[in-house]
Amino acid sequence: MGRLLKFFIMAVLAAAALSGCVEKNILDDISLVNGIGFDYYDETKIRGTVIYPYYLPEKDPEDKTFTAVSEIKKTILDDIGRQTADPVVTGSLNIILFGEELAERKGILELVDAFQRDPGVGSTLYLAVVEGTAREFLEENYRYRSTVELVSRLIQHNIDRGDLPKTNLQRFLFDYYQRGKTPFMPRLKRKPGKIVDLDGINLFCKGKIADYLPPDKMFFFKLLVDEYSEGLYLVEIDEGKASVHSIRSKRKFRLMEKDPYKIRVEIDVNGVIDEFTGNELKPATMKKLEHEFENMIKEECTKLIRRFKEKEVDPAGFGQFVKTKIRNFDIEKWRNTDYKDLTVEIKPTVKITQSGVIE
Prior knowledge:
With about 350 residues, the protein is α/β, with parallel strands linked by helices. The protein has helices spanning about 1-20, 75-80, 100-105, 110-115, 135-140, 145-160, 170-175, 220-225, 285-310, 320-325, 330-340, and strands at about 30, 35-40, 45-55, 60-70, 90, 95-100, 125-130, 185-190, 195-205, 210-215, 230-235, 240-260, 260-275, 345-355.
């Protein structure tokens, strides 16, 4: 018992000593940034815009923004700090937005990597490309919610119940540094009426936008790169249209051949019909709906993979998968020839159950 007591006392003293090395900030004396955006300025400089809540007595907080132009992210924050009455702190950062011109012309990797090295920034913050400039996006006065809350909740909602695969700072960097895989990022758009819309997905290669997938491709993209826990899709046959919801999916890769490579992607989809426009939903009609849904998945996923190869991107991670199966995997040979010659077979299995059908 004496040893345990001594150990406990030593642990408490050590913790107290270490706590003296941590820099402390009083919330009332700092500008706690919760969002930041970057835009293209010229060939050597970028423009940064930060947004943070400004608290007033007995009132809801207001969004305040500051902008600066510089060559690197750290200098931008220092320049913005000279405009504010309090120090700029990034410990509450939730979103990082990139203007589309910056993401296309200069690339974003150095900026993203800088946040990974910032010990005050969490790895689960959201990244997104925005139509137009990040500055205009952050300065907009949106309805009902603050800009940062609106964007973060929009992204999280579409990950949980929509067609957006899981994405954040950690996942983006993991995909980038993973041999045989390339990252992606959601694209956001401002709409009339001060509304924000998820406007598809940008695919990246070497830190720059390589392709754009519109919203109507996102369902099949998520089937290839992630798993559904919720989802919704409309399937149409001659007898009527069926709304399939509560979609759950799983995917599995199988290496079928090696020279040249052939991969089978097995996609299992389960869903419930909550609305059907036809007269009666018979068992034969259910089978027909399942078959049609399987054909759609096979056709659309095959088109996406062909598109990936043309754009030299691999968000599904086929190269990463092959690397785990092949000894002495040659990544350069994969990029130069093997990926182009790769054959991918999509094998979907759809099971639909009837529930609460509206005729």
